[in-house]
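Researcher: Please translate sequence to structure tokens.
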Amino acid sequence: QCTYLEIEQAERTHAVVLSRPAWLWGAEMGANEHGVCVGNEGVWTREPLGEDEALLGMDLVRLGLERGSSAREALEVIVALLERYGQGGSCKEEPVPFVYHNTFLLADRAEAWVLETAGRYWAAQRIRGERALVVPGGWGALSSPSLTPPPPAFAEGSRNISNQLSIGREITAEHAGLRQRACSQGWWNGDGEFSFAEVFSLTHQPARMEAAKARYRAGKELLRQHAGHITAETFMAILRDKASGICVDSEGFRTAGSMVSVLPRDPTLPCVHFFTATPDPSRSVFKPFVFVAGLKPAPQVRSPTFRDDPAKKVPRFQSTVDRRHELYRRHQAALELMEKDQERGQKLLQTLRDLEKQGLEGMNALLAGTVAPRPEELADLFFDCVEAEMKFYT
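Model: Translation complete:
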């Protein structure tokens, strides 16, 4: 059972860790036990939006993680389900539908991909480089999907997305009917090189797309500035950048959650996933999570469930419920303190940064092989970090 649709179950699914809006089944971003990471962004294209309930892009994020043991396999899962079921339905917990199509970032230890969609149509680009590094702005025709590597000329070391189509002519794989669809709609005459972004982007962009262009350019420039020496801390700083619009905190809208993953090429080393689990990364703590046996659950970051959930009753979203989890509530109170009492707020923020630094130093030592924590320590790691953060709020 996904957010709106029930689909056939897979014979086997992988363990996943997800950052998601509490009312729906899918996720904005997450990782699985095999070191696969997927995140998505909304886009508006020339293809009509489907208000009929289908799969959400966020459902596809979770399905790719649950069913894909590599980034490529996750991509194959997503495009197969997209072609079969389509995407549609409201992406917001409000009575007035808010609908969009989706772009995705997918990465594992070995490679990274960008997947962009317009209705049931899609194009994908493989990102090549010594280190495939991917941040949000958060593939040849396939019927039975199989992917072909792109020519070396398209090699890149980093990539970002931000609420707009960004795959031009560097297409590694695509929907079997993509170009035919473009020709039939009069969007492309069939001559010259085919650019997915040029052909499928709206002629007149909504205002939010104009802001996305600036955010995309800023993300690309920040990555360029740090090329060759990008670390987890670099990504955290980029995700906290308010001047660029990557970290949003204006007009009542705030970046909801942030995630940074370190995926070592050495398979003997664990992948480490850092989550804020709270809004506004500039005032949040990135806490490390590692997949190990016997993981200690962290109920402090799980939102409550409701017997009469307005997201599940049709018509949907006719009432509201408080979905904030315990850490969210305490963090929200701390944000209010930071805004009211600047001096105390700065002290608290410095304390939180020190806590984050400890986690980063511990994970760097783990990945460098200078420490070897016991499995039970790693199993308790995320829980302990959340508990420590909550104590600072009280």
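Researcher: Any highlights?
Model: The chain has nine helices and 15 strands.
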